[in-house]
Amino acid sequence: MANNVYPPDHLLRKWESLIIDEEQNVDVVLYEVFQAGADQELEACCEWLETYVQRWAEWSADFRADRRPKPPSLKEQALQALDRMDQLPTAEDQHIIRRALEQLND
Predict the structure, then answer these.
(1) How far is Cα of residue 104 from the mean position of the Cα atoms in its chain?
(2) Nearest Cα to 33, choosing from 46, 20, 51, 14?
(3) pLDDT grade for 48, boundaries at 50, 70 and 90
(4) What is the rounded distance in angstroms from the CA atom of residue 96 to the CA atom of residue 85?
(5) How far is the CA of 85 from the CAs of 66, 69, 95, 104, in angstroms?
(6) What is the pLDDT, as a whole number, of residue 1?
(7) For residue range 70-106, what is the model confidence (pLDDT) as tens digits?
(8) How far apart are CA 80 and CA 77, in angstroms?
(9) What is the 3-state secondary structure (H, E, C) of the chain?
Protein backbone atom coordinates (compact mmCIF):
# COMPACT_ATOMS: atom_id res chain seq x y z
CA MET A 1 0.00 0.00 0.00
CA ALA A 2 1.32 3.41 -0.94
CA ASN A 3 2.28 5.72 1.89
CA ASN A 4 2.99 8.90 -0.05
CA VAL A 5 3.03 11.98 2.12
CA TYR A 6 4.61 14.16 -0.55
CA PRO A 7 3.09 15.18 -3.87
CA PRO A 8 4.68 13.80 -7.03
CA ASP A 9 7.39 15.91 -8.66
CA HIS A 10 5.25 16.73 -11.71
CA LEU A 11 2.60 18.36 -9.48
CA LEU A 12 5.22 20.34 -7.57
CA ARG A 13 6.62 21.64 -10.88
CA LYS A 14 3.11 22.48 -12.10
CA TRP A 15 2.22 24.46 -8.96
CA GLU A 16 5.56 26.21 -8.92
CA SER A 17 5.09 27.20 -12.56
CA LEU A 18 1.58 28.48 -11.90
CA ILE A 19 2.88 30.80 -9.19
CA ILE A 20 6.22 31.89 -10.68
CA ASP A 21 5.83 31.70 -14.48
CA GLU A 22 2.12 32.34 -14.91
CA GLU A 23 1.79 34.61 -11.88
CA GLN A 24 -1.33 32.76 -10.75
CA ASN A 25 -2.88 33.95 -7.50
CA VAL A 26 -1.27 31.96 -4.68
CA ASP A 27 -4.65 31.36 -3.03
CA VAL A 28 -5.95 29.64 -6.18
CA VAL A 29 -2.91 27.37 -6.28
CA LEU A 30 -3.21 26.61 -2.56
CA TYR A 31 -6.84 25.53 -3.04
CA GLU A 32 -5.69 23.17 -5.80
CA VAL A 33 -2.88 21.83 -3.60
CA PHE A 34 -5.28 21.32 -0.69
CA GLN A 35 -7.74 19.46 -2.94
CA ALA A 36 -4.97 17.26 -4.33
CA GLY A 37 -3.90 16.33 -0.80
CA ALA A 38 -7.47 15.56 0.22
CA ASP A 39 -7.97 13.44 -2.90
CA GLN A 40 -4.73 11.57 -2.18
CA GLU A 41 -5.90 10.88 1.38
CA LEU A 42 -9.30 9.68 0.14
CA GLU A 43 -7.65 7.26 -2.28
CA ALA A 44 -5.31 5.98 0.44
CA CYS A 45 -8.29 5.34 2.72
CA CYS A 46 -10.15 3.54 -0.06
CA GLU A 47 -7.08 1.42 -0.81
CA TRP A 48 -6.80 0.48 2.87
CA LEU A 49 -10.50 -0.39 3.05
CA GLU A 50 -10.25 -2.52 -0.10
CA THR A 51 -7.53 -4.49 1.65
CA TYR A 52 -9.28 -4.99 4.99
CA VAL A 53 -13.04 -4.67 4.55
CA GLN A 54 -15.13 -7.28 2.77
CA ARG A 55 -17.58 -5.92 0.19
CA TRP A 56 -15.71 -2.60 0.02
CA ALA A 57 -15.64 -2.76 -3.77
CA GLU A 58 -19.46 -2.59 -3.73
CA TRP A 59 -19.45 0.51 -1.51
CA SER A 60 -16.44 2.41 -2.81
CA ALA A 61 -18.26 4.34 -5.58
CA ASP A 62 -20.91 5.54 -3.12
CA PHE A 63 -18.23 6.46 -0.58
CA ARG A 64 -16.24 8.48 -3.10
CA ALA A 65 -19.40 10.23 -4.32
CA ASP A 66 -20.37 11.14 -0.75
CA ARG A 67 -16.88 12.44 0.03
CA ARG A 68 -16.61 14.43 -3.23
CA PRO A 69 -20.18 15.60 -3.87
CA LYS A 70 -20.90 17.50 -7.04
CA PRO A 71 -22.02 21.10 -6.54
CA PRO A 72 -25.75 21.64 -7.05
CA SER A 73 -26.79 22.29 -10.62
CA LEU A 74 -27.94 25.73 -11.65
CA LYS A 75 -31.53 24.42 -11.63
CA GLU A 76 -31.12 23.15 -8.05
CA GLN A 77 -29.57 26.45 -7.00
CA ALA A 78 -32.46 28.40 -8.57
CA LEU A 79 -35.02 26.20 -6.80
CA GLN A 80 -33.22 26.75 -3.49
CA ALA A 81 -33.22 30.51 -4.15
CA LEU A 82 -36.97 30.38 -4.82
CA ASP A 83 -37.48 28.50 -1.56
CA ARG A 84 -35.83 31.42 0.22
CA MET A 85 -38.24 33.92 -1.34
CA ASP A 86 -40.29 34.22 1.85
CA GLN A 87 -37.35 36.39 2.91
CA LEU A 88 -36.01 39.29 0.92
CA PRO A 89 -34.17 37.80 -2.05
CA THR A 90 -30.46 38.46 -1.98
CA ALA A 91 -28.53 39.76 -4.96
CA GLU A 92 -26.97 36.29 -5.23
CA ASP A 93 -30.43 34.67 -5.34
CA GLN A 94 -31.48 37.06 -8.10
CA HIS A 95 -28.29 36.33 -10.04
CA ILE A 96 -28.79 32.54 -9.78
CA ILE A 97 -32.42 32.71 -10.90
CA ARG A 98 -31.52 35.05 -13.78
CA ARG A 99 -28.75 32.69 -14.97
CA ALA A 100 -31.11 29.71 -14.79
CA LEU A 101 -33.83 31.52 -16.74
CA GLU A 102 -31.35 32.69 -19.38
CA GLN A 103 -30.44 29.07 -20.09
CA LEU A 104 -34.04 28.14 -20.93
CA ASN A 105 -35.06 27.96 -24.57
CA ASP A 106 -37.73 30.44 -25.64
Answers:
(1) 26
(2) 14
(3) confident
(4) 13
(5) 29, 26, 13, 21
(6) 45
(7) 888 888 888 888 888 877 778 888 888 888 888 888 7
(8) 5
(9) CCCCCCCCHHHHHHHHHHHHCCCCCHHHHHHHHHHHHHHHHHHHHHHHHHHHCCCHHHHHHHHHHHHCCCCCCHHHHHHHHHHHHHCCCCHHHHHHHHHHHHCCCC
